[in-house]
Design a protein that fits this description.
321 residues, 2 strands
Length: 321
């Protein structure tokens, strides 16, 4: 079983290394080999330095990549600041809790000092997420590069981000619109092995859940009491997704099997028969989860990539040129 997953992953990487066509031009692993050969090391050192100061940024950088790619593709549109005549993605309610912008800014500045106008913010976001996953104990995966930065960032586009209250039917449809199947949905959801969520995102499970239940019946009783206490301070209080929230592992899936999923959309993955077998498989096999996550996030990193004249290389990640 593991051998087949390794073979699929190696095939995908081989295709990318050979310059498989992904749009008007081809992304490639060595896109910056001649123009900025040390950019990978500059991003990695910046990310690791930030994570040593604040380990919670691992989850933040991974989430930043996801929220970027699911809105207008992987084009760093989530980094753009709002202006007087435009409210950007980052000021959407769904994005107000995003963090890690300063890490991307620092990496960009280091690279601009050495290779001005060469490396896109979109590539930096993707690389920062990769390095955060590995730093937290997850798999290392290499990514093709050559994305261009988008010029559009509008709050209304964030309607494409999945809400924490969605059921599996809606999640499968939403992820399917981006080319992901149910197994890939579960693999990407495994990113919740890192980080925490605010009480505002799961308080719907604690009271007036539906017409028949006050508390979500899929939520462990002791867990419900714990969440009540944790959220007494207000909606902004944060609770870890699992007990090893700084470590990239299968703890998230084991939590779902015990009714300890934090968000409705998390626990739904175990409650629904279409996704429960995948949750069980990942809970019992770290290697399978790691391999499937690698493939899914590589695929996510190719969503609606801007190439050639469809984008630009921003000098400042927070504003278009």
């Amino acid at each position: 079983m593991v051998a087949s997953y390794v073979a699929k992953l190696l095939l995908l990487i081989a295709l990318l290394r050979c310059g498989a066509k992904l749009g008007a031009d081809a992304l490639s692993m060595d896109y910056y080999m001649m123009s900025c050969p040390f950019m990978d090391q500059m991003v990695r050192s910046t990310v690791y330095q930030a994570l040593r100061r604040d380990p919670t940024l691992a989850a933040a950088l991974l989430r930043l990549h996801f929220h970027d790619c699911f809105v207008q593709g992987c084009d760093a549109s989530v980094l753009i600041d709002s202006t007087e005549d435009n409210t950007a993605e980052k000021d959407s309610p769904a994005n107000l809790s995003l963090r890690g912008y300063e890490v991307i800014d620092r990496a960009k500045q280091l690279i601009e000092d050495q290779c001005p106008g060469v490396v896109s913010c979109a590539d930096i976001v993707a690389m920062a997420a990769r390095d955060a996953v590995f730093w937290a104990g997850g798999p290392f995966y290499e990514i093709p590069k050559g994305r261009k930065d988008g010029r559009r960032s509008k709050i209304e586009d964030t309607v494409n981000l999945p809400a924490p209250t969605l059921n599996v039917t809606v999640l499968v449809k939403m992820f399917g619109q981006h080319g992901f199947d149910a197994q890939e949905l579960v693999a990407l959801s495994g990113a919740h092995t890192l980080g925490a969520a605010s009480c505002a995102s799961f308080k719907n499970r604690l009271s007036n859940f539906d017409s028949d239940n006050g508390v979500d019946p899929t939520l462990d009783t002791d867990m419900a009491r714990t969440l009540w206490r944790a959220c007494a301070a207000g909606d902004g209080s944060r609770v870890p997704f699992d007990r090893s929230s700084y470590t990239f592992d299968s703890g998230y899936f084991n939590a779902l099997r015990r009714g300890l999923g934090l968000l409705s959309s998390d626990q739904a993955l175990f409650a629904d028969p279409r996704t429960r077998p995948v949750v069980n498989a990942y809970a019992m096999n770290d290697a399978m989860f790691f391999l499937d996550f690698q493939q899914a996030i590589l695929k996510m990193g190719l969503l609606d990539v801007k190439e050639g004249g469809r984008g630009e290389v921003r000098r400042d990640c927070r504003r278009v040129n």
